[in-house]
Structures are given as C-alpha cells and as structure tokens.
Amino acid sequence: MGKRVLLIEDEPNILEAISFILSRDGWTVHTHEDGETAMKKVIGFPPDMIILDVMLPGRSGFDILRDLRENQITKDIPVMMLTARGQEKDRELAMRLGANHFMTKPFSNADVRDHVRSLIDA
Amino acid sequence: MLGINTVIAFSLCYVAFLFFVAFWAERRAKRGNATWLHSPLIYTLSLSIYCTAWTFYGAVGYAARSGLEFVTIYLGPTLMMIGWWWILRKLVRIGRAQRITSIADLVSSRFGKSTSLGVIVTVISVVAATPYIALQLQSVTLSFAVFAQSGGQLWQDADLNATATWVAVGLFVFTVIFGTRNLDANERHHGIVIAIAVEAVVKLIALLAVGVFVVWGIAGGPAEMMQRIDNSQIVLWDQDGGRWISLIFLSGAALLCLPRMFQVLVVENADERHLAIASWAFPTYLFLMSLFVVPIAVVGLDLLPVGSNPDLFVLTVPLQEGKQGLAMLSFLGGFSSATSMVMVATIALATMVSNHIVVPVWLSLRPSQQAVISGDIRHVILLARRLSIAGVLFLGLVYYRLSGGGTALAAIGLVSFSGAVQILPAMLGGVFWRGATRLGAATGLLIGLTVWLWTLFLPSFGDAALIGQTVLDQGPFGMAWARPQALFGIVGLDPLVHGLLWSMLLNTAGFIIVSLVTFPTPLERLQGAQFVNVFEHSAAAPAWTTAAAGAEDLLIMAQRIMGSEQAQAIFEREAVRQGKKGFLPEVTPSFVELLERDLAGSVGAATAHAMVGQLIGGSGVSVEDLIAVADEAAQILEYSSRLEAKSAEQEQTARALREANDKLTALSIQKDAFLSQISHELRTPMTSIRSFSDILRDGEIGLAEQKRYSGIIHDEAIRLTGLLDDLLDLSVLENGQVMLHVKTGNLGQLLERAIGAAGGLGDAFEIRSAPDLGDMRVTTDLDRLVQVFINLIANARKYCDAQTPCLRISCADHGDSYLIDFIDNGSGIAPENQQLIFEKFSRVADGSKAGGAGLGLAICREIMRRLGGDIAYLNGQYGTAFRVTLPKEKPADC
User: Fold this and answer.
1) pTM for the full predicted model
2) Which of A98, B492, B513, B853 has the smallest number of CB atoms closer than 10 Å to its CB?
3) Partner-chain contact A87 B686, CB within 8 Å
4) Which residue of B lies nearest to A33 if distances are taken between CA atoms?
C-alpha cells in the first residue's frame, strides 16, 4: 500500500488526470473538491502529502494552506500548490505561507510525478 | 496806578467776556446757522495759538538776549505753511478721512490701531507739553507780579506760587466748561475756537498797539526807530548758522507735531480749502506779530534799568511810560496768549490721555457689557477728560514750581518743541512711506523720547535741579560718552542743537532700520495704504457730521462686517418684531445686544463689543472711523476667507486626486483580476488537454480509457474555443465595434430558433412560451437577439434546480417595446448576487457544472444595450427571472 496523497481540486477533469498519474506511480490518491470542508478532511485522515488547488469553491487554497501550517497535526505535511492564475505574486504568497512546491497549470505529468515523489521521500 | 486787584478784576471781566462769546458761538453752532464759524478767517485765527505767551512776551526777551535769532520761531511755521503746505493738506485729508482725534490717534491708527503707540505718543506729548504749560503759567504769574509791584506791593515767592495755582485753577474751570461740556463725535469745540479767535485778535492788537506806541510814541517815528536799532546791541549778536537751521526746522516741525497745533490745524479743520487761505494768512499774522519785537526790545533795553526782565518788556515799557491803559491791553494780550494755548493744549492732551490710556484701561477693568451699551461710558470719558485736564495743568504747575521760574521763557519753549518733534519721523514716515511698521515707529519714538529726556528735558530744570553737575560734566557713573550735553563725545555744540541732532538722528535711524527689518501686520498694511494713498481713497473730503449713531450707521457697519444679506436680515427681523417696515428698527438695548452677539461671530467678541459700544456710546471715535475699522475687518475677513477657500480648494483637489488614484488602483486591480480570471479560465481546460494527451501518448492504457480521455480532450478543446469566442465577442461589443445586421422578424420564430439551439425540447426540461408570440414583429439584429435568448434558456437549463424544471417565457407589448420575461421554477438568485451576475466571470453558481466562464450574461447585457434595450434580473418571482426589454424597432443611434 503506497503512501497517501490527498488531492484537493474542483475541476473534475484535472482531478481525474492527476489521480491517474499518481495511482499509476504507486500512490494511494484521495480526492476532495470543496475548499470549505478541506481542513476537516485533512485532520480526520492526515495524508502523507497534499496537492492543493488555489481557486476552490468555498475557500481559497491559500487560506487552507495557512490553516494547515498553523495546525499541530498538519503543519509538517508537504503541500504542493497548483494554480491556473500563473502570477508571480501567487507563487511568492504560496511559498511565504509555507508551501513546499508551487506548480502552474498546465503542467507536465512527469513534473507532477517527480515532485510528489521527492516531497514524500524527503 | 493800576493795582493788582484792578488787574484781577479786569482779567475776570475779560474771562467773562470770553465765556459769553464762547456760549454764544456754541448756541449758534447748535442752531446750525453759524456758517461764518467755519470761515477761513476763524481757522487762521485759531492757528494763532502757535503764538503763546512765549511769543507774546518771550520773543522780545529772546531778541533782547540773543538778537535776531527769535525770527527763526516765526520763519519755521511760515516756511511750513507756504512751502510745505502739501504735507499739511495730506494730514488734514487723512485726519478727515480717518476721523483722527489727535496726533496720538493719527500715529496709533496708521500703525494698525496700535494701543501701545497711542500711549507712547500721548506720553511724549504730555511730557513735552508740560514745560510749555508751565511757561504759560509763569508768564501770566509774572505779568500779575509786574502790576502788583508797580502798585507798590512786594511779592514773595509764595505769592507767585499762589498766583500760579489760581491761574491754573481758573484755566481748568474754563477748559472743562468749554472743552468737555459734551462729547462731540469729532472732537470739535466751537466755543473754544471762537474764544481763541477773539484772543488771537486781542493779542495781535495788543502787541501792535505796544509796537506803535514804542515806534511813534517813544522813538518818534520809523526813521528814529531804525536809528535806535542801529545803535543797539541787538544787531551785534553773533548768529550761529547751526542754531538757525536747527531752530527753523524745530519750529516748522513743531507746527505739525505740537498736540495743540494738530488740534486746530487738523481736528478742528472744517474745510480743506481753508488751508489754502491760511497758508498765506497765517504767515501774515506771524509777520505782524513779529514786526515790533525788535523795536520793543531795543526801547526796553534803553528805557528800563539794567537787570529788568526783558521777557516782560511788552508790559513794563508802557507801565514805565505811565500808559496804564496800554499796559492793561498788553496784559490782556499776554493773558490771551497763555490761556488760549493752555486751553487747546489741555483739551488735545486730555483727548489723547482719555482715549489712549484711561478708556482702554477702564474698558479692560470693566468687561461688563451693560456699562458700554447703556451710555455709561460717556460719563467715564467726560470724567477722564476732566481729570486729564487737571492732571496736565497740575504737571505744568509742578514743573513751574520745580524749575523755580528761573529759566528764560524761550529756552523752556525750545525744549518743549524738541520733545514734540520726536513724533515727526513716525508721523511723516507713516503718512508717506508704506514700508513703515509699528515696531519701527515705536523704536524711533522711544529712542527719541529717551535721548530728548536725557539731553534736553532733565537739564532744563536748571543747574543741578534734577541732574547733578557731576553728571553733566562727567556723565552718569563716569560714562563720559553719555554726558547729557556731549553725547558720544561730541562737545562744543550748542546744547539745544546737540540734543535735537542726536534725538532726531537716532529716532529716525531707529524708525527706518526697524521698519525695514520687520513686517507689518495685515491691519497695518491696510491702514498704511489708506494713509499713504489718502488722496486716492477719499476723492472728496466728507463734511463733518454730528449725528449720533442710529440704526442706519449700525446697519452700514454690520453690513460691512457680515455682508449685506445677513445684516439686512437681522435688521429686518428686528424691525418686523417692533412692528415696523423696512430695515431700520429702533436701536433698543436688546437689539444692540443681539447685534453685538451676531457681530462677535464675525470679528470676535472683543472687537464687536468695542465697535458697537463706541458706536452707541459715542466714546469720541466717529461713526466713519468705526466704519473704516469695519472696512478693514471686512477686508481682513475676506482675505482670510479667501485663504480658507484656497485651502478648501486644495483639499478638494487633493481629494479628487486621491479618488482618481483610488479609481486607477481599483481599475488596475480589476485589470489584474480580469487577466488572472482569463488566465484561469484558459489554463484550466488546457491543463486537462495537456495532461490527458500526455497519458494517451504514454500508451499502456485500455481502449475504454483511451476513448474516455480523448472525449475529455475534445470537450475541453470546445470549451476553450467557446471561451475565446465569448471573450472576443464581449471585447467587440464593449468597444462598440460590433456590426449589427438589422432585419425584421417575429418573436415567436426567433424564440423557437433559440429553444432549438439551446438543447431542444423533449427532455425533462419544459419550456412554456406564450401562445400569441407569432404576431409580434421586431426590427433589430435578429441573430444577436437569438444569441441572448439562447443564453438565457441555456442558463435556465444549466442552473434550474427544481425537481421538474420548467422555464416560462412570456411577452408583453409595451408601446414602443416588448417586455420578454424568462422565469424558471428554481430557487432563484440571492438578492446580493442579482447585480453581480451581469459582471464578467461572475459565476455565482458552480462554474464547473455550468462549464462556462461566466461571460454569458455580460455578453447578453452588452447585446441588449447595443439593440437599444436592456436586460435585468426580475426580483420577486419564485424562480430565477430575467426581463429583456426590446425596442420594436432598433433606434438609429445604437
């Protein structure tokens, strides 16, 4: 049983794509589509790593990241941020808030796979 | 032989006669039929108070002691009247335009109504006048003594002192009766003026009579007289050029600066044109007064025993010759000279003391408004005047007693003159130089006063009376440079020339230098302009008015302070309250109080209080003067309100800039947000396409997955294209570059087309449209209209969350336009989002489900605006409801 990756993303097609890539690489992928309830999901079943979209319905990925870093249970979980807005200041904000990696959509599948590997192993 | 009692009786009769003349003149003036009182002749005669007992008796003594030097005392004023009349004219004009009451008022008024300057000038004037008044007391006393001695009585010092005191008391009574009987708004005293005019005639006749007697009665004719003069010592006297120039300057300047001369020259002036006549008539008077001085002096020196007081030759020569009647006339001439000078001088000084010292102090001690408004202040001022007159006379008496009457009359007079001319730099500077400042004037005056006191006044009490001989010789505390008669080591100068030179030099220098380095206050600036440019500001000299302040004056003043509308409103309200029409109510105490409160809002409580109080109480400052103050206040207010307006304007500009900046920032944020949105909307389908195409390229997946993933790629590619189409469409619509193809069609067919394109009928979604749509014809861009319909139907299809979703489309004919409603049976849109939905990228509902970028309704709204209609969310329906307003024919200008 591979390590658990929680994928928080509201675009169903992207969710399916990333799930496929990571499952194929041996990870157990859990998905969540809503921003508001994301924290509950993480605390209830802490994964080994989180892939977090910025633009989520209900709550922004940045807010969730801040909460993750302030919570004792979740503060050490590696987080890779995903965004389609592609602005430099978003990257800065993400890194400042404690993201481990920041990735812009569209991405190459190999990049996602490599970064998840390195973040979980670290 | 005329005994002293006869002389006293004569004097009393003469005084009674003067009383009668003065009373008569005042009554005539009150009745208003006394135009001759304002004649240039009276004006010229009143100027003759320049010729005091000093001139009457002293000139002869002066000639006997110092030769022709006495002429300078006449030459100064003569030159001033003839050559420098334009200075006088300017002073008279300013005096009338500004309602000046005294020389202290002139200086204080010029330098921003400065209280301190008024006090300084008053102090200088009082101190400088004191020796002069003492001089008059001395001459009258001495002339009494002459008669007493000629009557065989031997007078002791005690008798002289007692006489001087009685003379002072008598002068006090006369001056108080005529000088302070009432408070004339402009300080004019008809009774006194007439009395001194009469006295001017008496003293001229007396002196001429003595002169004629001396030339024809004693010498035996002009030729013999000239012979005697040639043989006398008078022509042998050395004449000091420096002293001559100094004395001519001194006496000329004194004409301007002596408080009593200012009083008759400026304050009592009834008509500016009188000055033109006086400019030759007064020098003529002076010439006549001086004509027989030398003959009398020569004859006196010849006739009388050595050691006789030459100051009394005018009296003692007729007595010596047994001409009792002539001696009596001569006595009356001297008496007239003394009394007229003392009366006018004390009135002028009392006005200054009461206006610049007593009343300000009294007002500051009693801040109660009641006193000022009720007219109490009139009593206070009158009392202040009377006490001031008494005080000035008392000071003169003290000086007389201190100096022991031992100094020659002429010397005392010159000391007095030098004191008064210390005002000259500040006065002329103020009148001709706009750069002169209050501090400069105060500096010059104080320096001049100090130097004069030290070099001339204190030594004038006689040897070692107030200043010890050691101080005179070695300076105070051994400081040789500060010796009173050899300042800064300048020795050898005549003491008078020395004192005058230093005091005027340091005074003027201090005045100019301090004026140059200080800045005038706004009020000083205004006053300076009004004084220096008086001829531009007052084209025609206004006539003197004696009317008391009425509602009209108050209204004028109030208007100048708070503006016409407000002032008139206040006055009208009061008039109505009193049951009158118009703007002029009765000036009741309550109204005055109300007005003062309102004025205080504009100029501050203190100023309003003083202005209203003076206007109502008539404290001696004229109505016009107050209005001038009001004018200045109004100008200052206007100036400050301009400043305020300016700063308000700047604030407004700053606010506008801030708003513009905020708007720009907001726009930039919007632009950022918009770009960021577009980026997101474009990248999201791109991400799926790229990711799944990667997966497909990797192979290793089953056929079912292959089919599914290429389906996703296909859908996302279409979504991407649609998004780009929408963006382009919106951009074109927003920029107004859209090409519209206007055709005519009917609404029913257009709706059917839209329903078909939006996914057709047949599934669970029910569309009900009104049956009579077929008759509704419309001329517009039909394709664009269908685009709007499709959008609305597609939205309903996507977002309607009812169990059995249903869209009702209805249409109403509304004159020029149709109202087409699209109402579904879903849960609707929350009120706070109803405006938001028309904004770009505003996907209120779940965007992924809709599959759109949130541009649909924004495009609909743009299209409807292009077509001359509108689209709006319809509130109050059960489901989501849109109303399309469509003109039956598209207006040409859209």
Assistant:
1) 0.54
2) B492
3) no
4) B848
